[in-house]
C-alpha cells in the first residue's frame, strides 16, 4: 500500500464540472478559463459509453482545457485516465479499490496524478485517506436528480463533521448558496452537473459558483 497522503489540496480544483457526452463541449474551453489557473476542473463521466467512446470524450475535454491548465479527471476508469493522459481518476464504492488504483497510478502516471474517492461520512474519508486518496467526493449534500439511486441527502452539517481529513469536494444539488455553505462548513470545493449545464447561460452559472467557493 502506498504511503498515507498528507491531505493537501494541491491540484484539487475549487469547482469541478462533470462532463457527459450530451453536454455542449464547445463551452468547455471557456469554462476552463474562468478564474485562476486550476480553479475550475472537469470530471468526465459517461457510464454507458464504450471504452473507445469514453477515451474519445476524455481526449476532447483535455484538448479543450490544456491551455487553461484545468485538471481533467475520469470517473470510474483508471485505465482510460492513464491512456488519455488525464490528471486523475474518481472512484466510487464499486470501482477499483483506492489502494490498488493508487499503487498503479504511482507506477504508471506522472507525479501529481489525483485519486479521488466517493465518501458519505467521516469514517469513509478516513479510510480513503489511508488507502491513498487525494480528496473525497462527499455527498449527496442535497437532493439531486442528476444521478439515480443515491441515498438521502447528507446536509451541510455532515460536511462539517467529515472535514479536516482530506480535501472534501461537496456534490449533490449544489447551487451558489449551498456551495457557499459547504465551503464555510469545511469543504475544499464543489462538483456540479445541472447547476452549470442546465442553466440558461452555463458560463454565468459557473462564474457564480466559482465566486461562491
TrEMBL record:
* The UniProt record lists the keyword Transferase: yes
Q: What class of enzyme is it?
A: transferase
Top-level taxon: Bacteria
> EC number(s) of the enzyme?
2.5.1.3
Any idea which UniProt keywords this protein has? Transferase
What is the protein's name according to its record?
Thiamine-phosphate pyrophosphorylase
Q: Which organism is it from?
A: Nocardioides zeae
Lineage, please?
Bacteria, Bacillati, Actinomycetota, Actinomycetes, Propionibacteriales
Amino acid at each position: 500500500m502506498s504511503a498515507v497522503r498528507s491531505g493537501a489540496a494541491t491540484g484539487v480544483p475549487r469547482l469541478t464540472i462533470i462532463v457527459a457526452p450530451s453536454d455542449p463541449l464547445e463551452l468547455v474551453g471557456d469554462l476552463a478559463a474562468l478564474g485562476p489557473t486550476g480553479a475550475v476542473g472537469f470530471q468526465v463521466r459517461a457510464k454507458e459509453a464504450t471504452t473507445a467512446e469514453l477515451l474519445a470524450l476524455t481526449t476532447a475535454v483535455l484538448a479543450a482545457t490544456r491551455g487553461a491548465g484545468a485538471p481533467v479527471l475520469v470517473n470510474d476508469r483508471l485505465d482510460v485516465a492513464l491512456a488519455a493522459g488525464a490528471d486523475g481518476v474518481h472512484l466510487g464504492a464499486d470501482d477499483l479499490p483506492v489502494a490498488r488504483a493508487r499503487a498503479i497510478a504511482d507506477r504508471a502516471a506522472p507525479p501529481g496524478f489525483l485519486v479521488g474517492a466517493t465518501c458519505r461520512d467521516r469514517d469513509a474519508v478516513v479510510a480513503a485517506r489511508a488507502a491513498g486518496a487525494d480528496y473525497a467526493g462527499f455527498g449527496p449534500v442535497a437532493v439531486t436528480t442528476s444521478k439515480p439511486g443515491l441515498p438521502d441527502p447528507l446536509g451541510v452539517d455532515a460536511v462539517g463533521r467529515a472535514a479536516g481529513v482530506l480535501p472534501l469536494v461537496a456534490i449533490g444539488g449544489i447551487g451558489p448558496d449551498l456551495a457557499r455553505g459547504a465551503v464555510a462548513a469545511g469543504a475544499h470545493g464543489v462538483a456540479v452537473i445541472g447547476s452549470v449545464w442546465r442553466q440558461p447561460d452555463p458560463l454565468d452559472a459557473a462564474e457564480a459558483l466559482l465566486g461562491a467557493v
